[in-house]
Amino acid sequence: MPTHNQPDSGHEPEKQEVDASAGYERSDAGVTGIAVFMVSLLIFVAVIGMLCYGIGKVINAQMNKEDGPNSKWTKTVDVRQLGNMPSNPELQNKIAEIAQTFPTPRLLTDDGDQDVADLHAREDLLLNNYSWVDQSKGTVRIPIEQAMQLIAQRGLPVAPSVQTQQPMTGESAPTVTAPLTNGFARTSYEQEQAEQEAVKQQQGEQK
Length: 207
Description:
Largest sheet: 2 strands, antiparallel
Strand content: under 5%
Radius of gyration: 48 Å
Strand order of the largest sheet: 1-2
Order of helices and strands: HHHEEHH
Shape: elongated
Number of helices: 5
Helix content: 40-55%
């Protein structure tokens, strides 16, 4: 018959009490585990290094097979030994000349103000001077001021009247209002250039 003094086979083992009076761990660390980890890490690094070296050799061999063996034209040169090349004034002038005669479209070095001013200058040259339209037929382009005077004297040719239908009920004939300007205006850049030219002329007259 069981007694209370006999231990029960199903109970948990008693926990050993840890003596913390020393204030630190008295047992030694497992040196074997650390040594195994370090050796495994070294082996892993060595295997990865050998694998990368082998892949590099395979890639280089494939590139050499496609490009052929190295020659004097494919020799690697250290360009740092050449230093900075000195500027050549003749070469710079040649580049500037080529840039001036380079075919369009060209990159703009400013906001395009000078190009617009040049366009208006060419237009003014045609509007304010005589020029040939067709020399074989004797057709001449006259200044616009003279053309306006001739039109004011002779009048515009009258177009034949067009038969129009009577508007239906509720409709009205369209009206066309004259524009406030002729659609042409100088840019601010051209106005500034004109003001500078006027100032220079005044200074020259005062001198």
